[in-house]
Design a protein that fits this description.
0% helix
Length: 56
Amino acid sequence: MANHRMEADSDPMWRISPRHIKFEDLILISLNHVSQGSWQPELQLRRQMRGASSRA
């Protein structure tokens, strides 16, 4: 996976990297066609993250 910078106002808790969320921790729930040539994934974490609230 390429090393990309996060947006300036992003929460580092959601970083995908070996020391944070691993690619293998993501489950694709659905894929929505939002406009011509654009798709939006709905993802779920396989495990609860430390420090994250269990309430949505």
